[in-house]
Amino acid sequence: MNTDVLVIGGGNAALCAALMAREAGSRVLLLESAPRAWRGGNSAHTRNLRCMHDAPQDVLVDAYPEEEYWQDLLKVTGGLTSEHLARMVIRASSTCRPWMRRHGVRFQPALAGTLHVARTNAFFMGGGKALVNAYYRSAEALGVQVRYDSPVERIEVEGGEFKAAWVKGQRISAKSCVLAAGGFESNREWLREAWGQNARGEWPADNFLIRGTAYNRGVLLKHLLDDHGADRIGDPTQAHMVAIDARAPLYDGGICTRIDCVSLGVVVNREGERFYDEGEDFWPKRYAIWGRLVAQQPGQIGYSIIDSKAIGRFMPPVFPGVKADSLPALAEKLGLPVETFMQTLNAYNGACRVGQFDHTTLDDCHTEGLAPAKTHWARPIDTAPFYGYALKPGVTFTYLGLHTDDTAAVRFGNLPSRNLFVAGEMMAGNVLGKGYTAGVGMSIGTAFGRIAGRNAALAAAGQAAAHGAVKDEG
Fold it and tell me: Which of 106, 164, 169, 316 has CB atoms 3.0–4.6 Å from 173's, for a disulfide?
């Protein structure tokens, strides 16, 4: 079997690539490893796209200029990012929505509980599942061939040039290929290998939950890195990693299992001790560091503790918190050492310097003489009833990936492939060395998916890849 452009993957980046290549006139075949009912990978669990804009735009309020977006990204990554590629993603985010709408994606204003990102993020009507379904409908209407239950076992690459892919013993050749098959977060063995054993004799990865798809096993990523010597980027232990409800399922818990009250209270480990500043920055800029923080604690577990003053100020998770009328009773219900827990809470309450509390700003409510400090939104936890949520690390996607440039070409020995391209989570580490800010994963996937699809079509037609963001918005 042969085609012009082969797209391996079934989420946002893959679909953007397939649509762009088809619009350019190529015959396109998309291979999704999951069954149809589970198509879309992690994209099905998303809600929004972080968008640069210089003035109000339909569902986006005020302005979110390029420099502010870049500074937000620079802060959360700690400088572990390619400024050139990051700025390309940022600029592309300002112009992609008309194209998305043409393919059936609809947007809506931010919902109650998410108003703090109404300026920076455009929300999908119906969430990520609706976006994925819209793209599949559009792709099929345009003549993109889609095959489900089609995991690619390996690909043939000669001299950095793609030749064919193997699926269930069948060889599929193509003039060009886009890799958009996700990270390796659902490969427990690889996670164990990456994280290793800690000083307490624990294997932290054994306690990780996977927020998204069970199908992102990193088979092609490992194949490209180990067997074909593709250039790599990123740390295998870095990931979009969130503190989620410890009662969440092993796979596909999605956003509803996230615990969003962390900044409104304190977080303790199983010893009853705090270990990080809960008020360091706004939650959309910090929620994705808490999974890693919890992963470093004994037993890879933490506990978010709030009182009744916090109720109504955060998006409630799917499971109710453990409730008690006193702090000692809450500690007992959570299985925490009561004496240490009360020492921690009493020290925190005594250190609070409450000013003008405002969870929508970096307010002046802070602690004094406490380590670790709580630098914003610090109020005593003193008003019954009290609530506690057990937290475990929830991995969304991993950052180890394939090194690329602004053509989205896979690189071998620092030389770009003529006809093999990469998009989405398989290359997100070029922009995200660590950390995360809400909606940027979809920005990366959309920008590089479209670039990869366009350049795959050019390669299939025997033309050189083009540099820079796609500009044919229409």
Answer: 164
